[in-house]
Structure prediction request, 412 residues.
Amino acid sequence: MFFQACARPSVCAPLSKTCKPTLSLSQFVARLCAPSPQHLQKAKSSTKASNDGRYSNMPCVSICQSISASKHTASKHHYLDSVSRSFAANTCSLTGSKRLTEYRNSHLNMSMERSLCTTSDRCNRPVGDVLEEMQQVLVELGVLEPRKSVEFFIAHVLGMSTLHGVSADRELTGPEVERVWEMVKLRQQRMPVQYILGEWDFCDIVLKMRQPVFIPRPETEELVGVIKSYLKGLEHQQIRLLEIGCGSGAITLALLKEFPQMEAVAIDKTTHACELTAHNATCLGLTDRLNVIHLDISADTGQLGVFDVIVSNPPYVNTEDMGTLDPQVSRYEDHTALHGGGDGLDVVRHVLTKAQSLLTHKGTLWLEVDTPHPVRIQSLVEETGGLRYLRTLQDFTARDRFCVLQYSGCTR
Prediction:
């Protein structure tokens, strides 16, 4: 499974494991084409190998060619290591992380572009080679899930959802390699894979994805799973569902697909989210049972009626943590879908208040929140009344993530 960057870095450990490069920098430099002749000359002057005359009269050629000429000598690895050290020294000499990133982006872009120029127009490339080379580009830049990213790109170009069952020897055409590289370049800029592909699998449905609509996380698939288990006991009765903050429509559409007796209303305070939910509903053939409304939960909700189930994955990142978001979150996803105010509970408080008038007798409210929030939400409910806190559920990382509440007022 591909993990989207965590939007709660100060609370949750990153979901993605640190990826170790499959090639060393020296191996990667050898595989691709060389940097400029000036970089090569600096590398040659910084190694002892240049003193014994082997490279003193060599013209400025690619590192690949240099290695080929000396591949049977013991100095090959020594030379490559010196090139790597020279590249690292040149990189570190720049001041500021921004200039460092720009330099590395430029260098890797140049290397890969030269590699593509010499291969993509004239011959096919094995999937395994393309995966290895382009993965390394993302590894060098510290991009999350580099291998998974490139696997998704290659699979997309091949018209597949994954590379499962695809041989590493299967060949990509030149234009296909170029299409993969264009996606890799977007990923270099930390654009989320979901936006690059324009679609994403979620709970057995395929959703169209558009920037800046919030990308559903794996935890939300878990939430849908537990709601499905609960609704199995209600499968012989009509169910009315409300989603507060629908985003791409992921939760509502996955539940509508599972339960044909369900009707739903999805609200969001942003027009782009409402438009994407409506578009996804059309693609999935679910428009006849879904009403999408552009509405903020803090506004008047009296016209919505009452519901058996209310579900929400509201904005819950607190103000302090907003400044520490991963670049692929902060640069591309809608901040209004993330920021929950000073303590992260601004929108949650509105949801708790409105749920008291929106739930049927014994209707349930399901929330996906930040890990410190369940205890606070339980306290809020005990203070205000109208709802009963049933239980807290954990996500796949064993963190408190989901709250289940129930209407506790008089029979409607």
The chain has 16 helices and eleven strands. The domain at 214-407 is CATH 3.40.50.150 (Rossmann fold). Residues 8-96, 117-121 have pLDDT under 50 and may be disordered.
